[in-house]
Amino acid sequence: MFSFFKKKPVAPEAPAAPVVAPTPIAPAAAPDLPDLLPIEEPAQKQSWMSRLKAGLSKTSNNLSILFVGAKIDDDLYDELEAALLMADAGVDATTYLLDALKRKVKEDKLLDAAAVKTALKQLLLELLQPLERPFELGRHTPTVMMISGVNGAGKTTTIGKLAKHMQTHGQSVLLAAGDTFRAAAREQLMVWGQRNNITVISQASGDPAAVSFDAVQSGKAKGVDVVMVDTAGRLPTQLHLMEELKKVQRVIGKGMDGAPHETLLVIDGNTGQNALAQVKAFDDALKLTGLVITKLDGTAKGGVLAAIARARPVPVYFIGVGEKIEDLQPFVAAEFVEALLG
C-alpha cells in the first residue's frame, strides 16, 4: 500500500535515493505500541481491503441490494437514484451517473442486473479516478505541509498517523503544534511525537503563525525532510478565524519560499454533503492541494467522494476507516469502488 507515495527526482548533481516501498521496517522505539507497527505487505493488503469493505458496508449495502434479482426498468433507476442521494453523492453526481448509466445500458444492450452493476462500477471508477494522485516526497527540503480542518474531524490524530507513514519511508519529520487554542491538541501532538521519536515545536500559548514560522526555520536548520503544521479547527463560516488561517499560510511562506508545499484539509466522512461545503470554503481560502477523509468506517455517506469529484475535484490523498495507524491508507479509486460495489 505504501507504494502510493512517489518521490520526485532532484537535480543530477545531488541525486536523491528514491523512496521505495519494501516491507516497512518496524521502528525499534515503539515496542509497547503494537498497534503502530506496520504489518507485512500481503497481509496488509488483504487486511486493508477487509477493513475498507467493512467501513463502507452501510453505503455498500444500500447500493448493492438494489441489483439482487432486479429488472432493468424505471423502478431500478428510481431506487438507485434514492440510494445515491442517501449516500450523499449529491444531486449533480447522481444525475451524471444515472444519465451515463442509462446511455450505456441502451448502447451496450445490457439485459441483466449484474451487467448494469458492472457498468455502474466502471462509471463510478471513471468519476473518482481524477481524485487519485500520488503524494510526492522529496520535492523540497523540507517539504512543508499545512493541515487544516473543522473541529472534530480528526486532524491532530491524522497528523500523527501521516508522520508515522512518512517515517516508514525513511523521512525525518518535525511537527508544529499550531493549534494554540486547544491545549489538548498540543498535548495530543506531543504524545505522537514521543511515540515516534519526533520533535514537536510548541508553545503553551501564543501566535499560531509564530509557532509555524519557528517550525519551518527549525526544519530548514536541521535538514528535516518533512515539517507538518497543525492548525486550530474552525468552521468556514467563522470568517475572522479563516483570515487567521490565511495569515498562518502567508507566514509559513515567509519562513520558506514556496511553502507550504502541501495544504491539506482533513474531513470527517460522516458529515456527508457538508464535507463538500468545507472543501469549497477551505479551497477558496487556502487553495488546497489535497484531502484526507477520515471516519469512513460505519458511515452510510461514502458517496460524498462522488460529489467532491463532480463539484470540486481536489485530490484525495488518504482515507481512514478506523483508529489504528494502518487504518489510514492512500486513496485508490479502484479499491474504493470495489468496496462499494464489489
Explain the overall architecture.
This protein is of the alpha/beta class and about 350 residues long. It has an eight-stranded mixed beta sheet, with helices on both faces. It is built from twelve helices and ten strands. It has two domains: about 55-130, Four Helix Bundle (Hemerythrin (Met), subunit A) (Up-down Bundle); about 135-330, P-loop containing nucleotide triphosphate hydrolases (Rossmann fold, 3-Layer(aba) Sandwich), CATH 3.40.50.300. Helix content is about 45%, strand content about 15%. The longest helix has 19 residues, at about 90-110.
SSE blueprint:
Blueprint: E1 6-7, H1 41-55, H2 57-64, H3 74-86, H4 90-108, H5 113-128, E2 136-137, E3 143-149, H6 155-168, E4 173-176, H7 183-196, E5 199-201, H8 208-222, E6 226-230, H9 239-255, E7 262-268, H10 273-286, E8 290-294, H11 304-311, E9 316-320, E10 328-330, H12 333-341
Parallel strand pairs: 1-2, 3-6, 3-7, 4-5, 4-6, 7-8, 8-9
Antiparallel strand pairs: 9-10
Helix pairs in contact: 1-12, 3-4, 4-5, 4-11, 5-12, 6-7, 8-9, 10-11
